[in-house]
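hi! just following up on the protien thing from before. the input was this:
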Amino acid sequence: MMEHTILGPGFAVEIKSVDLSEEQTPEAVNAMRDLWLQHKVAVFREQNLEDEDLIRFAEYFGPTYVYVRDQFNDRQRPAITIISNIEKAGRKMGDLGDGEVHWHTDQAYSREGSFGTILYGVEIPEDGGATCYGDLAQAYEAMPAPLKTEIADKLVTYSIARAAETQKLGLPEAQRRAKPPLSHPLVRTHPYLDRKALYISPNHALHVDGMDAEESAALLEEVHSYATRPEAVYCHQWRPGDLVIHDNTSTIHRRDPFPAEQRRLLRRTGFLLPEAERARF
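and the predicted 3d structure came back as:
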């Protein structure tokens, strides 16, 4: 087994002595994949990567996709999105600025969702900017049996427009139309593992289907509280050269704000479940 260290409270792992700028053997890919799926978040430190390395790494696990808010997608490799507060000649280089990014699951507003997200740190601020991850399998296990029964068959409707409004992000009408609101089950079983977890995205959630607004808000608040308990959260303090991959079927994440005068630059890509597994999730 690959050398590794557990970083968080029962999840999140650092995988050591791997150079992701090199093509990996099938055996190495399987070992990384197994550690990542088991621990939901995997960290690789001291990497020196080009965009083609990020894409190759993502494609070990599933097909990449192009983010619908494409204003900050790389023009040469549109599956990569620039996450940054840096400006050049008065123009923003990247998405999400320097403010807090609230708890969410990537692509919860998409029919196919996102299986995994990869973040690669290029420039890191001295203060703030940590990315925190909540373990949705731990959250589900911690729930009392009556609450598990109550949410077993519930669906939640998600919308990209809600996150755009709360985070004050630009969302042209064409992008809004491309991703109309849709519903996902509140509890899902992992497509590869016999492991149940919540599937939630507080920053995108509109309501629990079939409930009135007050009941829906109360239930979502209760469910979300289990996912953000300190004993189920790992906060990653970034260093330049860090690569972090997280499983969107089993985690939510958020970002701390950081000083506007400090530069932060990450490159992000993501991948879908392989087509054969999508119907199982």
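Residues 164 and 171 are 6 Å apart (CA to CA).
The chain has one domain: 4-274.
cheers
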